[in-house]
């Protein structure tokens, strides 16, 4: 079997290269664009559009991170590949606000360009190896989903959301079906030689990017007010605390230790490709809710729903992560989710009489308690990495 010229090898395989960090920078812009898309379309349709666009943005990042799991980031062809993919991701990000208007073709074109270039590069680089066959099946699934992406851009606007939702479902179903196409082949998860430490680090970094976008949104909102009043300063402190406890909870759960648990490729796929999609989306929703609460003096149904949805979506990712890596579910996450639902219902009923800051503090109390509990349970030697039981 021939040698692979650009493959990761040796004890440095798990390192995240500078080109990978550079690639991630474009997703600071992408996440800001996603946040603004939801803020400017606070409706059920706007939420659905944001989710579909986020799903495409996340899948573009996710498949690139997985490809870099096998490629040496210090090699020039790999760096050039990353640069081209970064440019396409920038094009997608620019098109986000108008993806359901005149920017559909730019969004779809850049997304499919990334989806075709990555596997084509991997098939050429790993020709004669199992990974090339795997990426051939991945490419076929991408082309299948691409039919619906293109139809959504080409047909009248009222068809777009439904067709793009089908495209997202096809894209996300591909790994779950082992990339199987009857009569052609499959690429089962056990045939993908995956490095857990590299994937964990890549996902930790993109989660920090999502939190960083929250800081940018929050700071921009404060500056736009022109004057830092006492009430605004209090809201700023509560908003920052909300971001800090989200960071605290995440790193108590998913970092920095990646040892232990199930490290099979199937488990890593669920923990990072899927679970982290929910956690990053949750972080984006938290950022949107902070911006809304900073810029509004009174609660609205949309503000209440987004404020509760952020940590709830994040907790869904937590549960999937724990289930994938450690085979258990966390009672603490279910309890926190139930309390958040009760808070949201109470806020909806008392919306006309409840100050915005009270809702903010109530949600913060729940997430802070969960973060402290997670940090405590994971720090005990006898319960190391068994927070799923608590």
Characterization of the model:
- With 390 residues, this protein is mainly alpha-helical.
- The chain folds into two domains: 16-191, no CATH class; 196-389, no CATH class.
- Helix content is 74%, strand content 0%.
- It has helices at 18-24, 26-40, 44-67, 76-95, 104-125, 130-154, 157-176, 196-225, 230-254, 265-295, 301-326, 331-349, 356-379.
- It is globular and about 70 Å long.
- The termini are far apart.
- The model is unreliable at 382-389 (pLDDT under 50).
Oligomer: single chain
H and E string: HHHHHHHHHHHHH
The tally of structural domains comes to 2
What's the helical proportion of residues?
Answer: over 70%
| Main sheet summary | none
- Radius of gyration (CA) equals 21 Å
- Can you give the mean pLDDT? 90
| Beta-strand residue fraction | under 5%
How many H/I helical runs? Answer: 13
Category by helix and strand content: mainly alpha
What's the total count of β strands? Answer: 0
Inertia-based shape: globular
What's the N-to-C terminus distance?
A: 48 Å
Instruction: Note poorly predicted spans.
Output: 382-389
